[in-house]
Design brief:
alpha/beta, globular, single chain, 4 strands, 4-stranded parallel beta sheet
């Protein structure tokens, strides 16, 4: 189980990599999807399992993440599973 699941838009990759590195430096286990994986049913299942297994859900807020259907799906999934949300 990861401490944190990080949801972000691909356009925010540079910021998220810095965030991830900082979390790791502070001994936090973060689940983040670095690969550009097509949104298939199996991929969505893996995302769901990552969210379910995390203690908290980080949503990186940006114009791109707000516009992203996948980010919206992840946020809704986390909310439905009563995850602690960290913007």
């Amino acid at each position: 189980m990861a401490d944190l699941f990080i949801s972000y838009a691909r356009e925010d990759d540079a910021f998220v990599r810095r965030l991830y590195d900082t979390l790791i430096d502070h001994k936090r286990d973060a689940w983040v999807d670095w690969e550009k994986i097509p949104a298939t049913a199996e991929w969505l299942k893996e995302i769901g399992l990552g969210i379910e297994g995390a203690n908290a859900f980080i949503f990186v807020i940006s114009p791109d993440s707000i516009a992203s259907d996948i980010c919206k799906h992840e946020l809704a999934y986390a909310t439905n599973h009563k995850k602690r949300l960290i913007p």
